[in-house]
Structures are given as C-alpha cells and as structure tokens.
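Class prep. Protein, please:
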Amino acid sequence: MSTVSPKKNRLAASASPYLRQHEGNPVDWWPWGDEALARAEAEDRPILLSIGYSACHWCHVMAHECFEDEAIAAQMSRDFVCIKVDREERPDLDQIYQLSVQVLGRGGGWPLTVFLTPQRKPFFAGTYFPPRERHGLPSFPHVLDTVLDAYRNKRDEVEAQAGEIAGAIERATQLEAQDERAGSDARDALDALAPAEILERATKAMARRFDDARGGFGHRPKFPNTMALDVMLRRSVVAASGGAGERDAQCETRVKRALAAMRAGGIWDQLGGGFHRYSTDERWLVPHFEKMLYDNALLARLYADAARAYDEPRLAAVAHDVLRYVAREMTAADGAFFSTQDADSVPAGAPAGAHGAHAEEGAFFVWTPAEIDAALPGDDEAAQVAKLAFGVTARGNFEDPHASPGAPRTVLHEAMPLDEVASERGASLATTRAALERASRGLAAQRDQRPRPFRDEKVIASWNALMIGACAEVAMATGDTAARAMAERAFAALEARLLTGDRVMRVAPPPDHPGEATVAGFLDDYAFVANAALDLYEATATPRYVAVARRVARAAIARFADEARGGFYFAPSDGEALLHRPKDPHDQAIPSGSSMMALALLRLFALDGDPALEARARGTLAPFAQAALDQPLGLAQHVIALDRLVRGSTDVVVVGPRDDPRTEALLDAVRRAYVPHRTLAFVDPGDDATRAACPALAEGKEARPHPVAYVCRGRTCSPPVSDAAALARAIGA
C-alpha cells in the first residue's frame, strides 16, 4: 500500500536538489536504498529505476509529461517500485545501468529509464519516453504495460534476458584488452613504445574525427572534448621540446581553431562568461544551455595551458573569465563550488524549484532585437553594435519546441568581428569597442532581472577538485593571486566538508538541506582530490598539500585497487554491494578516475622516489595502452598519463628562503612556462617540512648563498641556475 503524501512524496526528505525537484510528483517515489529494494523483493514487483540530474532538460520534460500526469503516475505506483537516483550522487549506479541501454542496442543518456528485477538485474531500458507515441517512440504508458505483462506472464524470458544483460554489463566494464594483454604481455608492449610514439599515434587517430572547418571533433551534437584537445596541445609542443622531431604545427592549428570557435560561439556565454554543456549543431552556435562545474574547470585549465604554450593573452583572458563566472555564480559562502546551473528558466510566479510546464529552455540567455533596444534605452549606438556583433536578427537562431510561440530569439555569438562592425557603421574601432562594452554591461544588467536558471548547490568532491586544480593552474600561468586564493579557500572547504581522516566523501548537501555527507567517495573523488592537492603544492610551495595527496592516494589504493589484475575499481571495496563492481578506464564528461589515479601516483613518485608508486601506475596503464592508442578519443586522459610514464617528467627544484624575492622569481619562471609533464618542488633550507614534501628531489640540494633552481630529468639534474630568465630557457631546452 502506498505511503505517498497527497502533496509530497518520500523524495522531500532527500538532500539531493534533483530528487527534491520530484517531491511533488504524484508518483510513489523511493530513493535508492535497502528499504525500496526490500519492498520489491517482498511484493515481487519489478523496479522502475529513473536516473537523471538537476540540469537535465529532457529529465524535466519527461517529469512534466509523465511523472506529473495523475494517470501515468498511478500506473507507475501501482505496478512498480519506482526509484529515483541523482546520477551526480551515484555515478556507480549510472555507469552500470547506462550499459544496459547500450547492451540493448540503444543510445544512452538522460533521463535513463531502466526496469529491473527485484534482484537489481536490468531486463529492459531506454531513456526519454513521451506520454503518447510520437517521433517513432512508444508512449510511456504502453512501455509500462508491455514491461509489466512480460514480467508477469513471460517470467522465464525476463529472467533469461536479465541474466544475459547482467553478464554483458560485467564483460563491458572490463575492457577486453585487460584480459588479452594481461601481465608480462602488456608490460612488454608498453616497454616497446618509444616516447615520441604515444602522442604521435594518438593525435593521428584523433585527426580523423577533427572538424577542420569549424573546430572540434565530430559534427552534431558537438562536445568540447577537452581531454582530446589537451593531447593535441601536448603533441604540438612536446614534439618540439622533447627531441622527437619537429613541432606539429597542424596540431597547434587545430587546438587554436577549436578554442577560438568555442569562445566565439553560443556555447560560450557572451555576457556572463562560462561555457554551456555542448553545442546542438556543428558550428558551436546553439548550445544545450546547462552549465556544469566540471566543463568549466577542464576548459579553464586548457585555455590557460594553451595561453602559455602559444603565448596568446586572449586565451588566458578566457580562463580568467571562466573563473570570474564561477566566483560570481557558482561559489558557496565558504568557497566551495556548486555543481550545475540548469538549461531551463522558470518564469516569475512559478512554484519554487518548479520545472516542466513552467520552464523554458535557454530563456535566460536568448534575445530578440526588441529586447536589445529595451535593455539599452537612449543608446541606439550600443544597441546597433550589439545586434551586429552578437548576430541578433528578426529571424533568430533558437526555438524551444516546448515553449509558447513568440518572437524568434537569438543565442548571442560573435557573428561579426568588431572591425567589420565598425566598417559597417562607418565608425572608428575605438568607439565601436566602447559601444559594445556599454551594450554588454547593459544587457547583462537587464538579463539579471530575468528569472534565473535553477542552481544545484550540492558540493561534489571530484568536480570541486577539478576546479581547484584549474584555479591553481590559472594562477601559475598568469600570476593571478586571486585565482590562487580561490583555489586555497575551496580546498579548505573541501577538507572541512568532505575529508574525514583518510576518507573522501562524495557530496556535501546544499545549504538549504544541512547535514553530514553520507555518500562515500568513488575513485574519481580520491584521484581528483589527490591531483588538486599536488596542483596547490606547486602553486603555493606549501608542503602540507603533499601530505594530503599522499594520504588520499594511500586510501585510494586500500579501497579501490585491484590487487589481482592491477588498476582500480570505480566503487570502493567497503561500499554497497552492486550488480557488478565497475572498472572502466574510459573518459566520460570528466577524465577517467583510473587514469587520473595513475597520474597522481606518477606525480608522487617524482617527489618521493618510491618505485612502488611507479609500478602501480604502470600496472594501471599498461593493460589499456594499446586500446588508448587505437581509440584515443575515449581514452585521452589515459594517453596523457601513459605519455608521462613513458616519456618521464621534467622536475624542477627551487632551493631558497621562502621570503626571498629571488626565490619567488625562480618559482614564477617555472609556473609561467608550459611544461606538460612538470614537477615543481620547493626546498627552504630553514624548513624541514619542505624537504619532507619532496625527499627524492631534495636529496643533495643544499643551501647556497642565493636561491637556485635545478632542472632534473630522470634523476639527473642540471647545474644550479640562479637567474629566472636562464631557468625559463633551461626548462624549454
């Protein structure tokens, strides 16, 4: 018998903002947990598992069309145990059950709709289903009827299919290369790779998918593919500096083209800064409007690295603008970072947290010519410049099929270079630029009066760590002390909220639902936090951060390592028993946890010299090396870690008193240089803690009359260098 409230269901008690978006559904929803699973077993009812996230537009559409419909909700509640999961809280469940859709030959995505036996084995799966049949999709009520009929009347077939899918999921989560190239076979193949071969082979394979006309990979929809661009960036520079042939100018051209196209397109918020999730077209013009913390972290870091590599200040400006957006709109009072901003906007007067019927996709971001004029009263020059520069026309370029008809609207983008705008209007470039600056300020101020997209204010460990690392990298690349302070403050908040002893928790509840973090961290949480701590060590020369990285890495080995076959599982050994314990080296929207864990181990190895760290990283990377070179778009972060393992790192040790300006000048020279596989260590002769942070690199580095630096490769170090300019030259040699 249902215990659902006539006004709110069980999800009202959840800490997840996404689950609470469904608290008013007339569905008898359960959160994932023992009680719901036991109910399915006791009543022999199939489980209807629905997985999504708060910024997912189609999740909101299906919620409005189906979960808010009284008849459909009654059918769901009567015939199934209905469970809602926030994929950002439980990426392990999402990983496993996304595979069930793919095993059935369908495309994955969200909302994810999976039907399980009471033993949690999937037997049918899909994504979005409409309330009535359309566009070749069956209606959700028909799906419910068909699934229930099969479960009741064809149980043997259902059980057989569930067993087959569960077996396929288990096989899919273990990349075939791991079994085929296990042990010494994989190590021999890895040892045979020449340092120059890894990036060269990977970028050649990537080039086959690159869109040379518009930048980026593939066609539509088009995602930033940050990790793949990072591989190309490294190839364009390392090929020259690593003694492995000439600089790859084509890779440089492609990276620059992609970065310029994204910044010019509608995927970039031209007024507020920050990147939307992806482009629905091949031109980067019309985005899917949600903004994710992880995308902006990865892109800020990439733009900062490219600015250093190519000496392009405009690229550094984009990285700064990302951080300004995050500081303004995605930062909690204690400095931690929020998770997402929605694709949809809810008009004024709608219920708090409302979506579905009330929401309009992209409404916060798009404009009509009349709205431009109204936002800039008395400044026709600014209005005209804005329309030309941002491409705002009466035809528009965006339409939300679920919104009420109205005037065509435009996603702002760099439609015309400013010098052409000036020529078109017969004005000087200086006055045109000033007019566009006035217009941007006026439009941003007017936009701030619109109903804002929903913001998911939970704090996720791995995503925060990515942004902390990005802030640290921008600070090092540009000397921006505000970015460094932003990173340190966020890391302190992360330690206070989500680090308990050697345990990393996954998610801290949002401010409107205070309480303890209850979801244990996954491999990406541990791996990303360890790397963020090392990034902060290099940005601040504070040895404490190395101690945190060591502690987290040791805990990750204890909880996630596969001691039998090498590598790491995604879910912890002391966590919930799942249908299968996933282990996947592939990048998704964020880098894979296993490759980032290998990278953290290699970085710690450079500081500590412990061969066990390198051996464990090698055991993680070797089984997938061939697959990474053959399929680099899905394993780009693996390629990066593999390149560091085979090529080795450039280790720079700066020795001098912390408060000596000459010491800081040497540190700054290292930080501002683009060195893909860099380790920066700091030794203050008067502070033993600084030696303890980097014992392998500190060995033999004694105090001198003035600060010096050593450039080391393979434990062989250069003579001491005391001049910052000479150090910069030595690093690039």
